[in-house]
Write a structure and sequence with these properties.
About 30% of the residues lie in helices and about 25% in strands. The protein is α+β, with helices and mostly antiparallel strands and about 290 residues long. It folds into two domains: about 150 residues, no CATH class; about 110 residues, no CATH class. The chain has a six-stranded antiparallel beta sheet. It is elongated.
């Protein structure tokens, strides 16, 4: 979620280990995030935060390929739900949950859970382990307004923690030097933008229908990503090519152009503006300016 209002975070490393238990608080906010690796759950579960009502995320590697998957849930309190997931749900390796003592009830966290699931599904950046889409509870107008503020703060904190599953591509992303960039080759054309969140390939762009052999031999991760985008409907077959059904954010210009072209690619030189200037040339010019 993009925000134009600056804010500060206080991250308390409770056990002195940067990879251990962390408590995150945002300026002028009643909520708190609790972040911990699964391996520490037996030693941290007696903390008071685990006895509070909250909404939680479980993250871990996918069983069918590269990348992460996500589970979103709520608990009143959170500990019994996390206890069950610790015993029965295998994939997750880390967790984060949000609480606000004396300010959240069961309906509140059900609303937050439903909203987070909806946003993760719309963003379509990471597969969800949730079996179904939770229904929103009935809230008063005042409670709904309060939970929208709480949700806004959650979505502002998560990217700082490295969790980008809810970030949707802006409809007006930052353009390199004022221009939409184009990647062409192997009979397809894609357009995109370099943004602070990553390189965005825009809806309606086309990607090569198949991959060259060298990509399969040397860059299997790109092959898996293309297959994953097809399975999630981000890419669909359209004649002799694949078409992007939504704006999609890649971690780098090179990964974006490799997926588009179905071959290894240097995105800094394969993405060009209408005058033929490469992304590399544009960035060098901006640096000089």
């Amino acid at each position: 979620m993009n925000s134009t209002v600056p804010f500060s975070l206080r991250i308390f490393v409770a056990d002195g280990d940067p990879d251990g238990l962390r408590l995150v608080e945002r300026s002028n906010w009643i909520g708190k995030a609790v972040v911990f690796p699964r391996a520490l759950y037996p030693t941290v579960r007696n903390r008071p935060e685990f006895q509070q009502t909250g909404v939680y995320l479980l993250l871990g590697p996918r069983t069918d390929g590269d990348g992460e998957m996500l589970y979103i849930g709520e608990g009143d309190p959170v500990r019994p739900r996390l206890e069950d997931h610790y015993a029965r749900k295998d994939f997750w390796t880390s967790a984060v949950f949000f609480v606000a003592p004396a300010h959240l009830n069961k309906a509140h966290v059900q609303y937050l859970e439903a909203q987070l699931v909806q946003r993760a599904m719309r963003a379509n950046r990471i597969p969800l382990d949730n079996g179904n889409k939770p229904a929103e509870p009935t809230l008063s107008e005042a409670d709904r307004a309060d939970m929208e503020v709480f949700l806004h703060n959650i979505l502002g904190i998560l990217p700082v923690l490295g969790i980008t599953a809810f970030e949707q591509t802006s409809l007006t992303p930052i353009k390199a030097n004022g221009f939409i960039l184009t990647c062409q080759g192997r009979g397809v054309t894609a357009t995109g933008n370099d943004t602070p969140q990553g390189f965005v390939v825009r809806q309606g762009s086309y990607a090569a229908h198949d991959e060259v052999q060298s990509l399969k031999e040397h860059f299997p991760g790109v092959i898996k990503l293309r297959a994953d985008l097809l399975s999630r409907g981000v890419l669909v077959s359209d004649g002799n090519a694949l078409r992007f059904t939504q704006d999609y954010t890649f971690s780098s210009p090179s990964l974006a152009s490799a997926v588009v072209l179905g071959r290894s690619s240097n995105g800094r030189t394969d993405w060009k503006d209408p005058s033929g200037r490469t992304l590399k040339q544009l960035q060098e010019a901006q640096a000089e300016t």
